[in-house]
Amino acid sequence: MNSARCFAYMPGPKPLPLLGNSWRFALGSKPWRTSALDITLWTLRMLAGDGGAAKVAKLFGHPDLVFPFCADETARIYRREDAMPYRAVAPCLKHYKQELRKDFFGDEPGLIGIMETLVDNDRELPSDFLTELYKWALESVGAWALGSRLGCLNDNDTEAREIIRCIHGFFHSVPVLELSAPLWRLYATTAYKTYVEALDAFRMICLKRLADKGVCADIAKISGEKVATILALDLLLVGVDTTAAAAASTMYMLATNPRAKKRLQKELDSYLPTNRTVTSKDLNKLPYLRACIKETLRIKPVILGNGRCIQSDAVISGYEVPKGSHVVFPHYIMSNEEKYFPSPQEYVPERWLRDNDVNQREVIRCSVSRSRKGVVAGCEQEILRDSEQVLHSSDDDVTAVCRKQKEVGIHPFASLPFGFGRRMCIGKRFAEAELQLLLAKTFHRYDVSWSYGALTYSVTPTYVPNEPLKFTLTPRKKDRLHKYS
Ligand code: HEM
């Protein structure tokens, strides 16, 4: 603490007298735009300099935000977390729960084979495919949390449509309420009205749907119906946009990286059962699929940074940081830096495979026997013929990236898409299972491709593609189409 520099010297945008820094987000010009927080983070990274930290001070109604851009610092701060680490509740959520609907929430803080019918004559998915992914994620989390089907995948279900509309309204209004000047404290702005309407609708759905099955029903038995409803609400709010965004990005990454896609399809052809329900044991045999998801969440994490409110004065990256400041761990930046992930923009799921992964050995054996004997036992010839060229053309690049990655190792705090410690994502295992199932079935059945330019992304506050997700789905083998129920 004695040798630390004063907090005032930590770099960051200079606040104006009275207006602080909120005016930057209120004006919304880059790099201070709520929908382009990725660019905001890169700007702060530049201001922080090598291995340092940057801050955004004096935002209305907010403690100062501190951004340490170093995985070692991240590890150190996370590890000194108290028994109950504190992540500040977004002021607008606090307002809804603890002021506007206090009568309901009291003092409980809470936690926070349809594709075939969608393709057109050119086998392209519709421009609102992201909405379909939202529906899928909501249906899954609803079944898990509430123990009943919500009917989101049924086009005619008006309640389901209402739920989706509310989800969009909620997620688009939160960044506006949080980062722009909090005019909603003075009068009901449009974003505020959308936000409250969405939360009210969700609350009603959770109350109505709380059945005697599902995770929340178990909670209801122990802690009462109200706590269970609050938990259900939180799970629905955080478990839909996140998983849908992760699914969209992984499909895009694989569709635009034929080498990785072919390797995944080879793994699926060998290990995914098609004549019975897929179990968690089957998913355990798909390490390359898991690596594809990890690699996607490294390049395009759904949440760009995790926050903690520090409970005592601390030294961060050599600066004194006062108690009460919010530290934001910008893992999106670290996981895209050469220092932690060589060739960071290259999509190389192999960097996540361990030497002893079953299918890693299998693939090596396969390519050896292929080159030696010209045949590959147990592998489908047709798929290999297709993939031969792509596999060979870029094998060297992949090996080079993996070699460099092995040299630097994977820092356990450089890519944390689900957070860390006691407040990490409670839906991680569930989300991973959902993603694995959706992607395994889709890529096994279809050759997913992308015929448009590179996707651009916005923060809403999840990091999602802006353009319509018009993937093309070409069936890989006729007989596979009939095997799925
Ligand atoms: C790919 C999908 C998902 C991603 C990337 C994701 C990411 C995250 C992150 C980064 C956090 C903050 C962690 C921290 O501060 O250390 C979080 C918290 C949380 N997530 Fe997820 N999440 C996903 C899916 C889900 C799902 C499906 C659910 C529930 C069904 C869920 C429930 C939660 C809850 C309740 C919290 C708050 C935990 C707490 O405050 O203690 N998430 N998630």
UniProtKB/TrEMBL annotation:
List the Pfam families hit by this protein, alphabetically.
Answer: p450
What's the superkingdom here?
Eukaryota
Q: Which cofactor does it need?
A: heme
The record's keywords, sorted A to Z, are: Heme, Iron, Metal-binding, Monooxygenase, Oxidoreductase
InterPro entries attached here?
CYP11_CYP27_families (IPR050479), Cyt_P450 (IPR001128), Cyt_P450_CS (IPR017972), Cyt_P450_E_grp-I (IPR002401), Cyt_P450_sf (IPR036396)
Family, per entry: Belongs to the cytochrome P450 family.
Protein name (database record): Uncharacterized protein
